[in-house]
Amino acid sequence: MDPNLAADLARLPELLDDARRFAVEVLAGIADRPAAVAPEHRAPAPLPDRGAGADGALNQFRERWAPGFSGSAGPRYLGFVTGGATPASVAGDWLTSAFDQNVVVSTDSAAPDLEREAVGWLRELFGLSAAHDGAFVTGATMSNLVGLAIAREWVGERLGVSVAQDGVAALGNLPVLSGSPHSSVYKALAMLGLGRGCVRELATMAGREAVDVDRLAAELAALDGRPAIVVANAGTVNTVDFDDLRAISALRKRYPFWLHVDAAFGGFAALSPQHADLVAGIDEADSVCVDLHKWLNVPYDSAVQFTRRRDLQVRIFQNAAAYLGLPTDNPDFVHLTPESSRRLRALPAWFTLAAYGRQGHREIVERDIALACELGDRIAELPRLRLLAPVRLNVVCFTLAEDPSAARIDALARAISESGESFLTPTVYKGTPGLRAAFSNWRTTNSDTMRIVDILRSL
Ligand SMILES: *Cc1c(COP(=O)(O)O)cnc(C)c1O
Fold first, then answer.
1. For a pLDDT cut of 90, what percent of the chain falls above it?
2. What is the value of pTM for the model shown?
3. Is residue 415 part of a domain?
């Protein structure tokens, strides 16, 4: 054994304790760490020939890299839609690495059953019925990819071809209809060989990002019975707008289409009785995407995908080999997602649900929504700022009252980052450059919102 490795084996408890102590120190200061850190160029170090051992590596990381890491796990990082990591989920994540399970087949470990239990809990949390099966993937992009792959196979089934067997060429043109699709939908379609160009972005309702359902019906009618895919949005990134899932689903009585719902973070509206109506009808979907590293507050990377057609899913993702076995009625995860070998990504989610339950996570969601509404109210009172949309859930989308040019918005975003107080990401909403403040961290409190109001006022 390499001498460093042998020494580390002998000192394993101390080494893990050192890493733990460093993590505790980082998390104790997370609220004071700058939300964002301007990256400075670092020349890459040469590959070590003889390593420094785990404590040497920890020292190097501490000195060279950790100071440049953002406070994205902290309470005032409001860029993109970035959750933090609850205490229990961090513990679960550490144990995922310690056990190092490969959740591929069910013949050597209980780990796949833990993933099934976690998927069942999540299904219930998001108001889905037992008709939906699910699996963990790395993020909403992969969850959208899996849902759209099953959609593609479903269209093939209607046309009497198997895309998984014969390729996309067997399919011809396949229209994907959506009001305000997330960029990852285009990415998924590019990967699936359907092409970014197959998306038809439909008119949305006046002043909204939600699709105009009459317009959708007209487009479907024009397809003259040809099967299509509809991507409904449950929480758009700019203004957190929701398509009317019940109305869209009702169109299936008249037109053949696969209904995929991108509920990456909007799916969490189901946890708040006051907001659950926004996702009413989600159970009717054929496939559903929800991110977990956003509002469930588990560490990156983690998302779940659900579908009613596991049979089609297995046709696509099966990895049948003598040593892996054939897919059964309760297929192993190796036959369900793009990955073959995969970590026990379910464990951090399992930990946080076991630790805080439905009520604990409901409290996080409702607090973040209340904080977003509070910030929205304050911004509406500031004469030099203006809201670009009402605050429907956890994102405040706003701009400068006067001359909201991209250059001025970028300068404001930069000034906020450089203050270290917060991190907001710029966007363009209906042609107007603006900023988004997305609340999805379990640590954020009212005093954080007030600090953000102060920094906006001073800039
Ligand atoms: C974040 C997001 C995605 C992509 O999620 P990743 O986890 O980054 O892959 C897709 N759709 C919506 C609506 C999102 O908010």
1. 95
2. 0.98
3. no
